[in-house]
Amino acid sequence: MSPAPDLSNISIVVLSFNRGNTLGRNLIALAQMVEETGCELIVVDNASTDGSPEMIADILSGKTNTHFILNNSNLGVAGGRNTGWREATRDFILNIDDDTFITAEAVSTMRASIQRSARFGIVSPRILHAATGKVQLSFDDPDYRLANFHGACHLIRRAVLDVVGLNDENCTFGGEELDLSIRARAAGFDIAYVGDATVLHDNLVSKAEVGLERRKRWVYNFTRVFYKHFPLRAALPFSLRYLLSHVVSGVRAFGPGFGLTLTRAALHGCRDGRRQHKPVPPHVVRFYRNPDLRPEFGNRPLWRKLMKRRAPH
Asked: Which residues contact 120 (CB under 8 A, 6 or more apart)?
């Protein structure tokens, strides 16, 4: 067996909320990774009520280079990650969900990729569903430039946060990855895919299974991010396509008034985004207006989607 890689310049931040069963299995492996590789482990719990805090404290008790932070309330994804980032002390910060399973070798591969160029600010690996093997993030190009990193697993160069700041905590749920990616790209960093590293993610919710409240928050937050960064000529089509995709996928489950509910959320996002507007450079706008850019966020014209669905397989 080859020796474990030296990961002493990496902090691992795990954000958790009410996922005790999955997190428990994950933490045991991560604690062993800390011992073998010298990395730092920070676990942030967003005020779980399922016994997770007690379990985390028990697993990490007496272990060096580990930290447990229990928030007094659920700060959401953006706020929870920020809590961990403030505690992190290493040059690179690996962020994973409580249901993301990663090996030391995959972490080492991601670090090697981001170190290839000082322009590489954030990278995400190939991500598969832990139970089904279904692809959540994968591209033919092993160095594909992403619209945004994947929240389940991404490695950030600390210099990115030093330049652009932490997550926008107004992203209460959804949009935080896109927002930070836009700000990082505007500051001169690339967000890249690492096809040589694979992780497993034990969470996959289809749009048809997503509840109304979650959809409202997604639509509000993404719309706000669009108008916060982009000129009207880009923000308007992005927001309309994003809104329509959620209306079409959810109208059967929630009834005819569903579209009006999401439209109100979008209008509020537009209003708040314009109030916070900080325009990005023209080259960043051009990058995000590319209809072939992935992951998709409203940049792809609807006629292209229809053509793809009608194309013979």
From this structure: 113, 114, 157, 189, 190, 192
Q: What angle do CA 219, 224, 228 make, to 5 degrees?
A: 155
Tens digits of residue pLDDT in 234-289: 999 999 999 999 998 887 778 878 899 999 999 999 999 999 999 999 999 999 99
Integer Cα distance of 100 and 106 in angstroms: 12
pTM of the predicted model as reported, rounded to 2 decimal places: 0.94
Task: Report the C-alpha gap between 41 and 196 in whole angstroms.
Answer: 23
pLDDT digits (tens, 9 = 90+) for 53-88: 999 999 999 999 999 999 999 999 999 999 999 999
Element spanning 9, H or E: none
Q: What is the three-class DSSP state of 119?
A: coil
Q: How confident is the model at residue 206 (pLDDT cuts 50, 70, 90)?
A: very low
Element (H, E) at 127: strand 120-129
Looking only at the bridges linking them, the beta strands covering 10-16 and 153-157 are unpaired
With CA atoms as reference, report the closest residue to 172 among 67, 69, 284, 268. 268
What pLDDT score does 292 carry?
94
Distances from the Cα of 213 to the Cαs of 79, 131, 210, 220, 298, in angstroms? 19, 27, 9, 11, 20
Burial 157-188 (b: 16+ CB within 10 A, else e): bbebbeebeebbebbbbbbbbbbbbbbbbbbe
Alpha helices, DSSP H, located in the chain? 20-37, 52-60, 76-87, 104-114, 158-164, 176-186, 212-229, 232-254, 258-275, 282-288, 302-310
